[in-house]
Predict the 3D structure of the following.
Amino acid sequence: MKSLVAVILLSTTPVAFAAIEKFATPSDNGVVFQWWPKVTPPRGWHHDEGSSRHFAFNALAPDGSTFSKAETVLYAQASYKPRIPQIESLTAFVANDLEQQRASSPGISISPEPALHSRSGLAFRVVRFEPGKAATGAWERVAYAEDGEYFLTFAVSSHSRAGLKSSAAAFQQLLDGYTPGP
């Protein structure tokens, strides 16, 4: 009888769709809400819970390292649209991010790259960031997409150009590890 009940429960459980991890954490200033895409870490990478909570995004580091100590890291963030009503489209979201990057990193080189697609078919707009000759900072590839009530940001960030280049496959696996909602 117990196994029959288990089979019935399993067969009637709704299928989980695109997963956005949602957290409400108490702080000295009230409740802090955090959202990030639920992804399968690429082979050779792991989720870093402490850094994820600290930075409010899904932080991933190479196995054997931590997010704060690794030369190259991956991260994924979900921005809840109702919290940013002034941003009405993915184009506006990307433009806002690029503007913030230029303001915080003078001399940064920003260049568009060909779109990437996840295994599930979700299209990502991709931008490359490089520190430039006079700037300091990271080499990054950032992929932007939209899924329901969220703007998504997936990134690979490295202290070196070689680290960025060598992590291209892991970055694609990160995108493939996300399943969009219905």
Summary: Residues 36 and 78 are 5 Å apart (CA to CA).
